[in-house]
């Protein structure tokens, strides 16, 4: 596992497109790379034994109220490698990298039975809302990376992510 490099961009796009069955999420990542919310150190890839990128995760700048934090999305694993633990390993590595960078809180909009294994909890239990839509409340989650309290308020995102969140429907 390592930080994405410019050399990886085409392969990352292939992995994301294959993982989600369309190019929408790959287009989102391309738009995020060009946005102020992009954090290059938190775009991570996993490689197989031949050095081929087989998974990708991304954390971008977001906020709850006026408090800056991170949001995790998308998480993409080559379909031939899904279910092998690579995604989970990459998420844990990404959360550790975020801690190392001094980040305190991460949000995710995702499957409510998957993300709690990493410590994510329902956002509404912490006074956090997401007025952009983003599916059911149980899909809106938050994680404290340290002993800082989770801020309360509405989740906000960089423009490309906000546009995607408005259309998000968890699967």
Question: Can you characterise this structure?
Answer:
With 171 residues, the protein is α+β, with helices and mostly antiparallel strands. Helix content is 27%, strand content 29%. The protein has four helices and nine strands. The protein has helices at residues 9-20, 24-33, 86-100, 159-167, and strands at 2-3, 43-47, 53-64, 67-77, 105-109, 121-122, 128-129, 140-144, 153-157. Strands 1, 2, 3, 4, 5, 6, 7, 8 and 9 form a nine-stranded mixed sheet that branches. Strand 4 (67-77), helix 3 (86-100) and strand 5 form a beta-alpha-beta unit. Helix 2 runs antiparallel to helix 4. The protein starts with a strand and ends with a helix. The model has no long low-confidence stretch (mean pLDDT 92). Pfam families: Acetyltransf_1 (PF00583). One of its GO terms (molecular function) is acyltransferase activity. Its EC number is 2.3.-.-. Keywords: Acyltransferase, Transferase.
The rounded Rg comes to 15 Å
Measured as a percent range, the helix fraction is 25-40%
Helical region count?
4
SSE run: EHHEEEHEEEEEH
Structural class: alpha+beta
User: What does the overall shape look like?
Assistant: globular
Number of strands: 9
Beta-sheet strand percentage? 25-35%
The biggest beta sheet, please?
A: 9 strands, mixed
Low-confidence stretches: none
Residue-averaged pLDDT: 92
Distance between the termini: 27 Å
GO molecular function: acyltransferase activity
Domain N-acetyltransferase: 1-146
Keywords: Acyltransferase, Transferase
InterPro entries: Acyl_CoA_acyltransferase, GNAT_dom
């Amino acid at each position: 596992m390592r930080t994405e490099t410019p050399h990886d961009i085409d392969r990352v796009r292939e992995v994301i497109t294959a993982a989600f069955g369309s190019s929408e999420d790959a287009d989102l990542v391309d738009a995020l790379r060009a946005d102020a919310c992009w954090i290059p150190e938190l775009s991570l890839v996993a490689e197989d034994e031949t050095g081929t990128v087989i998974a990708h995760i991304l954390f971008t700048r977001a906020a709850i109220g006026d408090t800056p934090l991170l949001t995790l999305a998308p998480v993409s694993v080559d379909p031939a490698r899904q279910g092998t633990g690579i995604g989970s390993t990459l998420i844990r590595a990404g959360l550790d990298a975020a801690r190392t960078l001094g980040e305190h809180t991460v949000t995710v909009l995702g499957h409510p039975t998957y993300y709690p294994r990493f410590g994510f909890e329902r956002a509404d239990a912490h006074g956090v809302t997401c007025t952009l839509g983003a599916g059911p409340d149980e899909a809106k989650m938050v994680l404290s990376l340290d002993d800082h309290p989770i801020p309360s308020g509405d989740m906000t995102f960089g423009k490309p992510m906000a546009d995607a969140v408005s259309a998000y429907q968890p699967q």
